[in-house]
């Protein structure tokens, strides 16, 4: 049943996210464990920052873990406003919302790690960054 909801949710999620600002990272064949990664950040009414990271591992049996932060640039440094972690087998979609102040540059800073299985051997890890000004 969980897979059914994932399959139903994916097209809806993609439509919503494609209408916003996104950045797609395509994995090469030698990028072990990853098939596709998408990261995005957009700003809604009243300063709501909507940000997300989606990881599709190269095999549906692989488990991926996303550590995602929303950061603001000020005073010459990046400051973490909020962060969270999500793990899932197969497609891993993690999205959050957080109210921000206008006049700054923000970024989504996500580290994605792919494992053979939940609690299994690590295959690969990489960091993905997307910046947007509000």
From TrEMBL:
Its protein name is DUF5626 domain-containing protein
- Provide the leader sequence positions: 1-27
Q: Which UniProt keywords apply?
A: Signal
């Amino acid at each position: 049943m969980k897979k059914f909801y994932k399959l139903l949710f994916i097209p809806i999620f993609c439509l919503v996210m494609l209408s916003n600002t996104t950045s797609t990272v395509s994995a090469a064949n030698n990028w072990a464990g990853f098939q596709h990664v998408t990261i995005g950040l957009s700003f809604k009414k009243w300063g709501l920052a909507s940000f997300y990271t989606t990881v599709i591992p190269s095999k549906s049996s692989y488990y991926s873990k996303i550590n995602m932060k929303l950061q603001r640039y000020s005073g010459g440094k990046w400051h973490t406003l909020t962060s969270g972690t999500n793990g899932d087998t197969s497609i891993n979609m993690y999205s959050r919302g957080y109210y921000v102040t206008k006049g700054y540059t923000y970024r989504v800073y996500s580290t994605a790690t792919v494992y053979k299985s939940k609690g299994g051997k690590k295959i690969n890890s990489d960091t993905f960054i997307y910046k947007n000004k509000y």
